[in-house]
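Box 3.1. Reading complex inputs
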Amino acid sequence: MSEAEVVVRFEVEGGVGVITVDNPPVNALGPGVREGIIDAVERGVADPNVTAMVLIGAGRSFIAGADIRQFGKPRPMPARRSTDVLDDSTKPIVAAIHGYALGGGLEHALSCNYRIAVASAKVGLPEVLIGILPGGGGTQRLPRLIGPKAAMDMIVSGRHVPAEEAETLGIIDAIVDDKDLRKEAIRFAKSVAAKRPLPRVRDRTDRIAEAKTDPGMFEAMRKSIARKARNQKAPYHCIACVEAAATQPFEEGLKTERRLFSELENSDEAKALRYAFFAEREVAKIPDAPKDLKPARIRTAAVIGAGTMGGGIAMSFADFGIPVKVLEVSREALDKGLQRVRDNYAISVKRGSLAQAEMDRRLPLIQPVGSYDAIADCDVVIEAVFENLDVKKEVFAKLDATMKRGAPLLTNSSALDIDQIAAVTKRPQDVAGAHFFAPANVMKLLEVVKGSKTSMQTIATAMKMGRDIGKVSAVAGTCDGFVANRSRAPFITEMMLMLEEGALPEQIDKVMVDFGYPMGPFAVNDLSGLDVSYMTRKRRAAADPNYRKLHVPDRLVEMGRKGQKTGAGWYRYEKGDRTPHPDEVVKSVIADVAREFGIEQRSFTGEEILRRLLCASVNEACKILEEGKACRASDIDVMWLHGFGFPRYRGGLMYWADTIGARAICDQILSWHERYGARWKPADLLCEIAANGASFREAKPKRAL
Ligand code: 3H9
């Protein structure tokens, strides 16, 4: 049996040829699939008993697109494209969609004569998210079907469009009962079997004419994405292709699409984005987890503490339809916390990002309670009280006494030792960290922190809980700051120390924004509050006589400059406006510190600023791997993408380091070690990677978590 026959089946049922793509897990267009489709269509066309055909996917999806693993590798050019063969069929073909029809999957559906779907199906052309463009005719067919504007929106955003919207747009001809899609598709195929001429998307001219009435739409789109798409080519190439669809004949447009696709396939951004795609799938996997491990499903949750973090965590559950109880010590604190949640939802409604009905559905899911007994039956509890070990120990002793057996007892601590918290309970196997990032209802990262006694079951349940509430969950080992914040801490230190040497916040911010961050690190610090890390620095300074104090931020906090909330921090803010203005006061604080400590002043290039910040963190990330606190180097990258706004098209911290090269990074760090002393001592693993010419992103932890 040939490979093509294995991944694509062809059966005739009641005069309808059913072409089933069966290539688990998501029917990607891997080896043999396109050939299988061509073969099946030819059999259907040749068979006099077949009057119509159905293209359908086995398992959980229609077709999720081209096989992403094949990109960047040499591939034989097919003599004929399967999309063309579908298009050229003399008998009608119906695409029957369930699960996902994405990328090449939707392109195959668009090459069929009709498309039906179940209500839960989603369609989209998400190629831009992996740095390429729809290269199977999608940029030419979709605009002909739904108009260039709507097509451009879908192709440039890469979003998944639900079946109902797809039907309104005109992508789907009918939504059918999801009990037996195959049966429905056969019935539909029979109903259109005799209809001629065959509707072909490529022949449509009506919708494409819209571009004539609004020729400025392409330029307007380029302008509207300028900030978000900076440093990237793919979104602009996508627009160029849709413009080609509106201005060129179909075959010419396809040539444009092919040319621009081949420019992107091996671009730096495409490579980095492909890496990020697979790194995000890897991060979900728990190494050494037993095969029969079954994470428990969280149906109800409890949060201890209704502060900013507690409220945000509660919203995260409510946003995904999970009822959550919020416990506070006083009625007043509870009321205040709940009011903040209401206000947050109301802001989203006002901005138009949330429907009022949705807010009304979510709010009642958050139930304020005043006693531990009231949360005893919840499937999970997340403690989000004040960051103080003694306070947390008190809470965990109470949780141990009240919560039902087996419920994960999670702490939202951002730095404290999980083992010490677990030690006050009689069930340390159930205790782990669930480190959300602020604002908890917005930020995607969830660090699941394993203590030395935490069970795999608890980790697996916490990881699944994260996924169920839309987070990207990553496992970390317990240590000060865990993995994400610990790896970022040296970046923060260096950004402050560079000020003392002559750089300015606005200069450093500009370098990082130009690199691709949505905001510069000082502007971010103004948003989160300078006072947040002030106490941590005091604690560290008291504990470690060698601790290098950060005088500039300390002084700003002591002057009452805590960031946006006080109208001034690293920048000055006008009342009611979030625009940062560089401030002479900050300049003079920096100059005072430099003078007092006799620090030599010099100028910095953008390249030096960038390298100094990121290299400091790469070094720390290597130490984290050495200590076995992260499962993989690529997990650290995922944490940087989803926790700190690292530009996705640069892959992540370790991926970036590989683009510079291990030898160059190591030499740079060695020279700073000589100049600045102990804090730049290179990690052993870093030296090893450089000596072996190995890569950072493939570096393995030196011991198990
Ligand atoms: C394209 O189509 C180009 C065309 O224009 C033609 C050009 C000529 N390839 O995400 P999950 C794997 S570009 C290879 O955990 P979910 C994935 O790695 C493509 N593998 O499931 C994972 O493997 P493992 C355009 C793929 O239910 C497993 O499937 N299409 C692909 O949470 C399960 O994945 C896209 O960009 C693939 N295309 O989400 C869609 N897709 O178990 C990309 C998945 O070993 N895919 N895998 O870790 C997705 O967005 C999600 O996977 C999907 C399912 C929404 C489909």
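In summary: Residues 25-26, 28, 64-69, 100, 102-104, 107, 126-127, 130, 134-136, 138, 281 surround (S)-3-Hydroxyhexanoyl-CoA (CB under 6 Å).
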